[in-house]
């Protein structure tokens, strides 16, 4: 886990990149009815704005609230690092899925003009995104980003 603000920012940049790219491809695949080169193109074209939005939401809103929730209600300072990581990750995924599902719904309404469907699109996006985001975060993205992060920045090497 990151030890200071600089490490936290670097970790967030890496994690957001991984999660937003994967979830963008997943959502475009769902929307287009299957995976293809067109999915890769559409997902990649929509990625930069979604990434900036997700980074801002994560850094300025969700991260602090999720950590506060996790360390207030789910874990104690003496708990294992693994338990802390899992609890913070789960606490981050829930609000990010809610926010980014709304982002996707708004993006869909901008493209289609079907603003009357915004609430329904958002509500149907939430479970679809949650069932992909949580396992992906816990099983793939989290371990991968932690490995890359600690390989590039061994503990105590990034100064506060």
Automatic annotation (TrEMBL):
One of the Pfam families matching this protein, by short name: DUF2798
Keywords recorded for this protein, A-Z: Membrane, Transmembrane, Transmembrane helix
Domain of life: Bacteria
Membrane-spanning ranges: 9-25, 45-65, 85-106, 126-149
Signal peptide: none
InterPro entries attached to this UniProt entry: DUF2798
Listed name of the protein: DUF2798 domain-containing protein
Organism per entry: Blautia faecicola
């Amino acid at each position: 886990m990151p030890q200071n603000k600089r490490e936290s920012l670097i970790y967030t940049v890496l994690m957001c990149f991984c999660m937003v790219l994967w979830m963008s491809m997943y959502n475009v695949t769902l929307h287009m009815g299957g995976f293809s080169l067109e999915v890769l193109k559409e997902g990649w074209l929509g990625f930069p704005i979604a990434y900036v939005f997700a980074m801002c939401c994560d850094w300025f809103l969700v991260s602090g609230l999720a950590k506060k929730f996790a360390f207030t209600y789910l874990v104690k300072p003496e708990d294992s690092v693994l338990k802390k990581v899992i609890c913070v990750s789960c606490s981050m995924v829930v609000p990010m899925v809610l926010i980014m599902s709304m982002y996707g719904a708004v993006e869909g309404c901008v493209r289609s003009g079907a603003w009357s469907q915004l609430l329904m699109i958002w509500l149907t996006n939430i479970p679809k995104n949650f069932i992909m985001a949580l396992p992906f975060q816990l099983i793939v993205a989290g371990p991968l980003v932690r490995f890359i992060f600690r390989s590039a920045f061994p503990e105590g090497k990034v100064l506060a």
